Amino acid sequence: MATLPLISDEEASAEVLAVFDDIRAVRGTDYVNNFWRALAHDPALLAATWGRLKDVMGPGALDPLVKEMLYVAVSVANGCEYCIHSHTAAARAKGMTQAQYGELLSVIGMAMQTNGLVTAMQVPVDEVFEV
Amino acid sequence: MATLPLISDEEASAEVLAVFDDIRAVRGTDYVNNFWRALAHDPALLAATWGRLKDVMGPGALDPLVKEMLYVAVSVANGCEYCIHSHTAAARAKGMTQAQYGELLSVIGMAMQTNGLVTAMQVPVDEVFEV
Amino acid sequence: MATLPLISDEEASAEVLAVFDDIRAVRGTDYVNNFWRALAHDPALLAATWGRLKDVMGPGALDPLVKEMLYVAVSVANGCEYCIHSHTAAARAKGMTQAQYGELLSVIGMAMQTNGLVTAMQVPVDEVFEV
Amino acid sequence: MATLPLISDEEASAEVLAVFDDIRAVRGTDYVNNFWRALAHDPALLAATWGRLKDVMGPGALDPLVKEMLYVAVSVANGCEYCIHSHTAAARAKGMTQAQYGELLSVIGMAMQTNGLVTAMQVPVDEVFEV
Amino acid sequence: MATLPLISDEEASAEVLAVFDDIRAVRGTDYVNNFWRALAHDPALLAATWGRLKDVMGPGALDPLVKEMLYVAVSVANGCEYCIHSHTAAARAKGMTQAQYGELLSVIGMAMQTNGLVTAMQVPVDEVFEV
Amino acid sequence: MATLPLISDEEASAEVLAVFDDIRAVRGTDYVNNFWRALAHDPALLAATWGRLKDVMGPGALDPLVKEMLYVAVSVANGCEYCIHSHTAAARAKGMTQAQYGELLSVIGMAMQTNGLVTAMQVPVDEVFEV
Question: ipTM, 2 decimals?
Answer without folding.
Answer: 0.96
